[in-house]
Amino acid sequence: MYNRLDNGFIQRKFVARVKDFIEFAKANCTTYNNEGMIKCPCHRNKCRLLPYFDVQTVEYHICRYGFIPGYYCWY
């Protein structure tokens, strides 16, 4: 889950697993709101202050910044 970079580039496998994570979050997570937005588990401090983001933003943030260290609970 945390093997994000390979020679400075984001691994394709990581991006595919992020997409799987997003689908899992949308289907199972209680933090998915009625407007199609979810909480962002990325490493960026700003995301912890805002309640919800659209799915595309969360996907970008996870790929760009990675997950919060120690983030293992997906539901």
Global shape: globular
Q: Mind telling me the C-alpha Rg?
A: 12 Å
- End-to-end CA span: 15 Å
Helix-strand topology string? EEHEHEH
What is the residue-averaged pLDDT? Answer: 81
> What amount of the residues lies in strands?
5-15%
Total helices: the number is 3
Query: Helical percent range?
Result: 40-55%
Spans of at least 5 consecutive residues with low confidence: none
Query: What structural class do the secondary elements suggest?
Result: mainly alpha
Biggest beta sheet attributes: 2 strands, antiparallel
Secondary structure: number of strands: 4
Strand order, main sheet: write it out. 1-2
Topology:
Blueprint: E1 5-6, E2 9-10, H1 12-28, E3 37-38, H2 45-49, E4 53-54, H3 55-65
Antiparallel strand pairs: 1-2, 3-4
Helix pairs in contact: 1-3
